[in-house]
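Hi C.,

You asked whether I'd gotten around to modeling the 90-residue construct. I have! Everything is below, sequence then structure, no commentary in between.
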Amino acid sequence: MSGMRAIATPPPDDAAAVARTAAPVANDNRDPDVLDADQVAALLGLNRKTIYEAAARRDIPHQRIGRRLLFYRPAVLAWLSCKSPSLDRG
């Protein structure tokens, strides 16, 4: 084992060191709840400009932080379901 270095294990009370050496959390493949304009455009099958125009008209629920638009996925999907014609009309 010459030439190999042993990896020191941090003491249990050193939370920062434990966090640095911990394995990364596995991605559970869930969709994010907060989306940017490009992600909303992809979700809805629209282009980015259309999303920005809808946000400027306050048609689509969003939050502006500086120059960036953020969208809450459940709010966008709820908004979309309100805009869709009902399929149960007879």
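If it helps when you're writing up: The first strand starts at residue 34 and ends at 36.

Thanks,
B.
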